[in-house]
Amino acid sequence: MSERPAVVLIGPMGAGKSSIGRRIAKRLGLPFTDTDAMVVREHGPIADLFATRGEAAFRAIEADAVRRALEGGGVVALGGGAVLAPETRSALADHLVIHLTVDENTVASRIRGAKRPLLNAGDPLAEWRRIAAERAPVYAALAHVTYDTSQGPLRDVVERAAEWATPRLHPSEPSPESEHRP
Q: Which residues contact 132 (CB under 8 A, 6 or more apart)?
């Protein structure tokens, strides 16, 4: 297990967790892990897992990927629904959790044409709205800080997130003046 906490990105699909996480990792000089990419690498396309094994099996596979990613430390981007697993929510207590948000107008262009199993119903944007609203309280409860990715360059979000994480990853040693003296 890593000696220091991981910087973990959570939020709805299309918020930019993978793109921003990769950039934060580079900025901080840390390894980056995308749990969705881990699942795909080890088990094949997520859409196929949903179709052949169902959402419950996918969530179990995802929870295992999250556990392993958190043990490795660095910067970790979680799939949008990873926080649904109680064991993942518990594990996040030991890490630095960044919640990325995005408005529906921005996400509409990001998810258009994407192969996302939970958005295969009639109106993908309406389904995204429903899922995002359902999960919003969970994201808010787990997050230490929240950044919106809807407006402005992503580099601004990356910079603010890196500035927030740095002192938490490298807490300064107590100064002699702050030590308790009898």
A: 12, 104
